[in-house]
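Working notes for the structural subgroup meeting. M.R. asked for a predicted model of this chain before we commit to crystallization trials. I am recording the input and output together here so anyone reviewing the notebook later can reproduce the run.

Input as submitted:
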Amino acid sequence: MARYLVCITGASGSIYPLRLIAALAAKGAIVHTVCSPWGARVVLEETGRPIGYWLGKVRASGGPSHRPAIITYHSSEDFSAPVSSGSFRLDGTVIAPCSMGTVGSLASGATANLIHRAGAVALKEGWPLVVVPRETPLSLIHIRSLQTLKEAGAIILPAAPSFYSKPQTIEQLVDSVVYRIMDHLGVHNIHAYRWS
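Returned structure, recorded in token form:
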């Protein structure tokens, strides 16, 4: 069974990881999640509900055929969590949304929390690390940090939704990014709109 890690930082755009977690769980994947304190604050501010509510909702019936999903939540301060080690194999790590503070930490090799450590592990182990920045405009410091991550093997996938599928809802717009993330994790999704 495929196993993924979804990390949530304090940038705006909490709908992206929440939709991604639900989509991966629906495919039968085991999903590990880490949320920074500011990430949790943004989830609450943007959705009106705490992160635990959303994870609980997916756990209850978000798996294939509406069965329970396997989701494990780790504190961002818990360096003893299994996802902090390369011996705990993952099929991919996603940081969405990825704050520029997290980008800078990853680019410099600094690990102040479990999200930084998990990103560093993905890079050193060579499995997919998808970084989803949601910041505009970008300073030269941001661009250089993103370049460093790209050169180190990360996939830089900005939260830039497509419009050619003619989305009718915010969820459909967000899902155009979510499905691109899944593409880079090697997870096929029949709902993804493909240009033809």
